[in-house]
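Chain X:
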Amino acid sequence: MAGFEILDIASIGHCAAEILQNDQDAAIIGVTSTGIFIRTTTDNILYLTADPHCGPLTINIPAITSHLKSLAVETQVKLSPRVISLEEFQLKLQMGAETTVWEPPDLRQTPLDLAPFKDRVEMIKPDIFEDKFQIDFELGQGFRSNRVAYILEKLTPLIGCGEGLTPSGDDFICGILLALYTWEKLLFPKFPREALSAQICDLAQRKTTALSANLIACAARGSADERIFNCLAWLHIGFGNYVNILKELQSYGSSSGFDTMQGIITALSLSPAFSTY
């Protein structure tokens, strides 16, 4: 590595770690004030940032800020299980002994007290919910009767709906998939969640941005940005400061935090467990 500047990777999302194990060639597709987006030849996405918030596709590199203005779109990137090389800029990003692999908490393993859970759901709704997605609440009957094709027909128009790297409709669908994964036994215990998730992921690869398709695939596995999971943990067990959680959601994309939570709240509201809402 002579001649290369080496930056330490502080933490890496579990999905990003898997990508480094399997993909070798990639290119920068976007540079922002806080990080860079890398797309591999197999359409996987990595997000390199100095921001401390973790996520399934996020690679946290505190010292990368000083390099952001110099990096350019279409720059080729070489990947290996522990190193990301930007040879054009003589820069290597390296995992070391102190690098942590971030994974979201598995709330399915944590007991749920239903009454306070419902109270917290009701508490958050006025702060985050807007009637912007026009979801037919008869969709709940589709979930109850295990009609995957019907639900897919209703949700498909949302895929890729909106502007930006993660259109609002995609964030909303991420929320629905996260709720179905996290509270599967409570919401619709007999529903074939994995079949629906697989078909939505397939559609996303063809209908929306590569980043959104990757995040939808993560949501189908029960994973998302840690700011979303801080809110899920608050809903599930009351852990955390509600005011801080709302601020975190606001900081996640231009509207991704709130759009994802709207999907989560919608999925909850469609369930017989929340039939009074």
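Chain Y:
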Amino acid sequence: MRRDTGLFLILGYKLLRGTLALGAAAVLLGFGWSGRAAVLHAWADGLRHHFTSHWSSALAESFAGAVTRRNLVLAATALTLDGIVVLVEGWALWRGKRWGEWLVALSTAALVPFEAVEIWHHPRFGPVALLLGNLAVVLYLLQRVVRARAVNT
């Protein structure tokens, strides 16, 4: 199956996101295992005093309250699993696996209801852009699969 610009953009995003997720997981595990969770807690607490907007202050406050060794390990585990899945998706797209397009389309489509609920409760530009981007990816990949199936029959 030929790779076009849209597929390369999706592939690039998947590879970047997977790599960043695994890198973030490594950093969190490093802080958690070394017993330096207090360093992250102090950093988050310091952020609270340097931001003036309400959302960034609330984010820093939430982060400061959640930084424990257990939570760092849980977050690192979630990031590791996410990174692995995303990199498998990227690998499957790179190798031209038909199931890879289905995997990316289905895993992306699975997020749409959660994004829609988020927009319903807190309408903001970021979540709307994310929802539209994810819908575009799903529709694009499904269109590719349908087109390829029509050519093969």
